[in-house]
Amino acid sequence: MDFSSIVDFFKFLLDSEEIIQYGGLALIVLIVYAENGLFFAFFLPGDYLLFLAGLFASSGQLNFPITTVSSSIVGAAILGSYTGYLFGKLLGKNLDTRKDSLFFKKRYMDQSRTFFAKYGGKALILARFMPIVRTFSTIIAGTVGMPFRTFTLFNVAGALAWGISLPVAGYYLGERFPQIINYVEYIILFFIGITTVALIRTFITMRRNRAGGQTKSSVEKL
Q1: How far apart are CA 17 and CA 11, in angstroms?
Q2: Where does the record place the VTT domain (predicted)?
Q3: I need a surface site. Which of 20, 100, 121, 174 has the fewest CB within 10 A?
């Protein structure tokens, strides 16, 4: 496989419309599974893929009932998160010494760990709607030794909230406004904008909290 073929493959993985049209529900499920628990899959589309899956189901381009689409996504999200949790429990600490690469950035682990420390188990629900953090939060849960039952509770709750709300929203809007299918590019840009703002706000909050903690420690030493 030459370099151009590899580039084309990654372009395909990042193109939600092509994933749905040519890969169908099977590829959607596979991507959801990977993006929810495999650290090297953090770059895969998430939120807007789910929304577009519902939208395409309403137009018939994805030939499955919305109940099948949503339940498949929820199941893949749950299983993907279990994979991330078990990976974190068994090997997660090794990631702290892993060097940065194209498919791994240590700062993503640090950001997810700070996010998890602040929100606890609720982070697993909130993180479902945040790219990158969604991928690493399950690994962090395993690394810090969150009890399996507790993890299961938040894992299932988060998967249900994420895996139902976005596809159903896409399906509902597609039913009410069929012409929206012609504006897929703008929908993707909208989701990217929303998630980028959320990530930036979270990162700034984490930096402030970290700086505040360091200042407090310095004062206490004095």
Answers
A1: 11
A2: 44-171
A3: 100
